[in-house]
Please model this.
Amino acid sequence: MIRKSQTSESSFFHGMIVSIKLERGMKLLFTITLYLHILSVIVATGPLFAIFPILKRMEKAQTQDLSSYITALQGLLRAVANGGHFIVPTGLVLIYFSGWSWTSPWLIVTYIVMGFSLYFMALAFKPALNFANSAEFKKEQFIHMMKSATWKYIFLMGFFLWLMVAKPDFW
Model:
């Protein structure tokens, strides 16, 4: 009888230790995912602010130099898009670990805005870059298109940031 008691005590404590280690592991996984999410937001948003100095230099650039500026802008937009590819999966993992309901009002608004942002990203920057390679290219019009799209996208990313931080209860 004593041995059975020792065994059950032993397995009870072993279970607690495994549970604590698992909890620590999940907390570590949550923390790593959170940092990856924040890093991907920085990668997806930071390059947007680098667009403005490039466009400013582009205003004064000679026609033969414009292609290098356009190439630089394409690279920045590629970084923005690639950062966005990590935002979504890490965000979904964070929602899962955090215990928020998938139908929380702030998450439903996030899903809707995210759908529009994917459409907007394609609609805003692609035409500007296509315009840059067209015969009708005008530097001033291109710069205006890029500035407008960039400010809209920065506002959109700011709205996402507000949703993630404030987690408003819309209804």
